[in-house]
Amino acid sequence: MLLTSQKNDVSGCSGDEYRNVKPILALWIMPHMEHSFIINCRSCAEMIFTDSDTGNAGQNLCHVMDGFIRIKVFAVGNDRDESGDGAIRCFSHIFRESIDPEKQIRYLEKEGVSVTAHTIDQLDDCNEAQVVWADPKMKREYHQMKAERDACIEKIYGFKSENDGLKSEYDRLRSRLDLLKGKYPEIYHERTSTFIGKQKC
C-alpha cells in the first residue's frame, strides 16, 4: 500500500517500473513523554534532538529501535502455487484468493490455524482492502448487499434451528406414544380400529 498508493498519482510514480517513486516517511508520535526527543532511522537509529541531559528514555528507545525497522517486499506472481518458497504460497492464499474465501479457510485449517469468527473478520478486512472502488456508490451498494446477505443467512439458520426444535419435539411425542402403545395396547388397538371404521364410512 505504501507504494501502490503513489502509483499513477500526480505527485507519485508511474507505471509498473515505479519511476519517480517518492520516499516513505513514517512518523511515530509519542505525545505523553516526560522529555522531548526525536529519533531518526536511516541505516541505523540516531537521536537527533533531545531537551534532556539526564533523561535516558530517548537513548533507550534509540538503542531498541536500532535495526528494528526493516522492510521486505513480497511479490506474489501468477506461478504462486508452484513456488518453492513457503511464504509466497502462504501469501498467495491470503492475498490472491480473495474471490474464494472458503479456499482461504481450507488452507488455514490445513496449516493448523484455528479459524474463529475473529479470523474470518480479519480475512474479510484483508479481502476488502484489496478492492479498488471506482465509485463510492458501488462500495455502499456492495456493503448493503452484503448486509442483506448476512441477514438472509441468519434467518436461514433461525429457520433451521426452529425446524430442529420441532423435530426434537416430534421425536419426544413419538417416543411417548410408543411407550403408551406398549403400556396400553388394547386402548391403542381400539382407537385404531375406530379410526379405520370411520375412514371406510
Can you put this structure into words, describing what you see?
- The chain has about 200 residues and is mostly helical.
- It is built from 6 helices and 2 strands.
- The chain has 3 domains: about 5-65, no CATH class; about 80-130, no CATH class; about 135-200.
- The chain has helices spanning about 55-65, 85-95, 100-110, 115-130, 135-185, 185-200; strands at about 35-40, 45-50.
- A two-stranded antiparallel ribbon has the order 1-2.
- Strand 1 and strand 2 form a beta hairpin.
- The model has no long low-confidence stretch (mean pLDDT about 75).
Task: Supply the key terms.
two-stranded antiparallel ribbon, 201 residues, single chain, 3 domains, mainly alpha, 2 strands
Computed CA radius of gyration, to the nearest angstrom: 33 Å
| Fraction of helical residues | 40-55%
Structural class: mainly alpha
Order of helices and strands: EEHHHHHH
Number of helices: 6
Sheet with most strands: strand arrangement: 1-2
- The rounded distance between the terminal residues' Cα atoms is 81 Å
Compute the number of strand runs.
Answer: 2
The main sheet comes to: 2 strands, antiparallel
Mean pLDDT: 75
- The tally of domains stands at 3
Oligomer: single chain
Strand content: 5-15%
Low-confidence stretches: none
- Shape summary: elongated
Q: Topology, pairings included?
A:
Elements: E1 37-41, E2 45-50, H1 57-65, H2 86-95, H3 101-110, H4 117-129, H5 136-183, H6 185-200
Antiparallel strand pairs: 1-2
Helix pairs in contact: 5-6
In a few lines, what is going on in this structure?
With 201 residues, the chain is mostly helical.
